[in-house]
Amino acid sequence: MTPFAIALFCAAYIFGLLLTGLSGKVAGLPIGAIASIILGILAAIVMPRFWRMGRSRYWLAAGVVSCVAVFYFQFRIPQPSASDVSHLLNDDFLQVQVQGAIDSTPRLTRSQKIQFWLKANQAKIGDTSEAVTGKLYVTVPLLQATGLYPGQTVNVGGFLYDPKPATNPGGFNFQAYLRQEGGFAGLSGRSIEITSQSPPPICGRCGSEFCDRKFPPWAFLPECWSAQW
Asked: Cα separation of 111 and 41, whole Å?
């Protein structure tokens, strides 16, 4: 294999990963995979006429490599279970109340909302409740998120939504990001109610984030001492 072929196949693999940003499927196949094969065939026909090094079989193989990259990326992305809360979605936005345990340290977003991961166990739509599983990417208003920490059981009311993929190749793919974290839907919370509490974590768990922001690592931390004793 020539150095040109090696470089071409590496570039084709990277290009295939970028094509995963294209949403949608045709006949059950990702658009990125179909585009890879079509571009590989076109390049095999056109490129040898202008570039002697670019033999047809190299460009065809590059299209296959790009297609494999698309399928490999899809294979690595987790898929929701049969009882996942994301299966409740039948519209872009669904008004729902979800109960579950906070599974991450709440953080402030750029839009001045509080975001955390919720491990859902029950969902209520209207008067109908059902048991669910899975994780939700939850955002709630800043003023309603006071005192939240991992381990609390909360009831969040709001709108369940389907995360959107990237609109252009190479753009931020919110849908892929959530899937890599094990979530398949988001919840735009309007209200939140704490239904049960576990003891707040000591500094070694989520308090460490507070300490790291307030003090350098080598500082004396009385907050840590008081939390542990």
From this structure: 45
pLDDT of residue 211: 44
Instruction: Report the mean per-residue pLDDT for the chain.
Output: 81
What does the block give as tokens for 206? 């989520």
Residue 42, SS3 per DSSP? helix
Residues 6+ apart with CB under 8 A from 77: 176, 179, 180
pLDDT at 209: 44
Two structure tokens written together for 77: 């992305």
Among candidate residues 54, 40, 44, 181, the one with its CA nearest the CA of residue 32: 40
In the chain, % helix, strand, coil (3-state, to 5) comes to: 40, 30, 30
What count of Cα atoms within 13 Å lies in the side-chain half-sphere of residue 40?
Answer: 25
**Taking a C-beta distance cutoff of 8 angstroms, is the pair 156, 140 a contact?**
yes
Distance of alpha carbon 97 from alpha carbon 125, whole angstroms? 7
pLDDT digits (tens, 9 = 90+) for 12-55: 999 988 888 776 778 878 888 898 999 999 988 888 887 776 67
Q: What band does 202 get if pLDDT is binned at 50, 70 and 90?
A: low
- Triad 11, 14, 18: Cα angle to 5°: 130
C-alpha to C-alpha distances, 35 to 22, 32, 47, 168, nearest whole angstrom = 10, 5, 17, 14
The pLDDT of residue 54 is: 67
**Radius of gyration (Cα) for the chain, nearest Å?**
24
Q: What is the spatial distance between Cα 77 and Cα 51, in angstroms, rounded to a whole number?
A: 38
